[in-house]
Each structure stands twice: as C-alpha cells, then as structure tokens.
Amino acid sequence: MRLLAIDTSAVSASVAITEDGCIRSLCTVNAGLTHSRTLLPMIDAALQNSETALSDIDCFACAVGPGSFTGIRIGIAAIKGLCDGTGKKAFAVSTLEGLAYNLLGQDVLACAVMDARCKQVYCALFDVRGESVTRLTEDAALKIEDLGRLLELYRNRKIVFVGDGAKLCADALGFPAAAPLVCFQNAASVAFAALRGADKRPPLDGKDLLPVYLRLPQAERELRSRREKS
Predict the structure, then answer these.
(1) What's the angle, vertex CA 28, arms to CA 22 and CA 32, rounded to 5?
(2) pLDDT by residue (tens digit) across 169-182?
(3) Domain interval for residue 36
(4) Structurally, how many domains does the chain consist of?
(5) How far is Cα of residue 9 from the mean position of the Cα atoms in its chain?
(6) Which end of the chain is more exposed for a tag (fewer CB within 10 A), N or C?
(7) Radius of gyration of the chain measured on its C-alpha atoms
(8) Residue 47 contacts residue 26 (beta carbons within 8 Å)
C-alpha cells in the first residue's frame, strides 16, 4: 500500500510517503512557520520528489491529536480535501501513538508526551519491543506529578520520554528523553502506526475524520472559569 501521511499536531510539520513499509519521501519543517503556509507545498514536494502522482496514493493518514488545536484542524482539513478530491480514505492516528513508533527497534517503555501548557502534558504509554508496539494506556491530559506517579508502576522497564514534552518531563521526573533525531513528530511514524493498526482501525471517509483535543480550547476553559466564579 502506498500511503501519504501528515502530522501537524505540534510546532513542526511533517509529510511522508511510504510504500509497503518503506519510506519513499519524508519532509519535516520546524521553522516556526504556520502550517497553513508550509503543509500544501510540502505535500506537493513529497509527491514530486518521489515521482508519485496523487492518483497513485492508495490511502492517507493523519495525526488527529492531541496537540495544537489550530495545527490539528489544518492537518485534518488538508486530508479531508485530499480524500474528497481523490475518493480515497484516510487513517486517523493518535499523535501520541505515532510518537511511540519513533522508537521502533528498541526495547523500552515509550512515554509519549506533548507539552499541554498549564503544567500538564498529553501522554500515553506504549510497550516497544523491537518491531512491536503495544498500547498500555489511553491518551490523557495529566499533571506532570500525576504522570510521575503513574510511571512508578513501570519502574521494572526502561522508560524513555518521546515528544515535544520529553525534556520537560525528563527534567521533572528523571527518566531520559529520546535522542533529538527521534524525539519529535514524524509523519513516517504516523504511516507505520496506521498500517500496523489497520486491522483494528480501518480507514475512514474524509468526512468522518475528527480532531481529538482531550481538553477544551483555552477560550472555552477561561469562559467556564469566569462563569464558575460568578
């Protein structure tokens, strides 16, 4: 299967084309530019540089969250457009699950973490053993100290933080962060997660792709807080 995958859930934007488990093209930009400026040119470049026509793509994959509310919306909107234009379907992949696939080939407990601000992280735990990735916990938004208490249950495993919250959690909780080359969002890992979970998570029509935020947008949280105080 030839897959075009994207991840726009954080500061970096990533686009990959994979075929039968091999990476044909991979591009990641972490220049602080908005995804609305970079994503479509990156998709076009990935197709051209791998000499792949859009019609050759069998399916799409998208990191649907958690992560940046705006980034997720941009990514999902782009994939919905590609699905509508080609008649193809798309896999919805957890951003945190994609991060765990960055550590393929290792024997670790991957703690995928993204900085959710307000002293919280989006997080999930995955047992990585060679080419196998097994989810241990559901995606959640936790305070860092609560994550620390959860990790106490897994001290018999080598724990590695992966994601843009890795350094934050490593400094606070003492477990190591993944190496910089594999620490951040990667669309190829989104593609691998999509294909290896295809039996449990079949592709969706573009209209059925939905964002996963885990918590309310800041504006809604502030409005709720004001109402509770009044």
Answers:
(1) 165
(2) 999 999 999 999 99
(3) 2-95+185-216
(4) 2
(5) 6
(6) C
(7) 17
(8) no
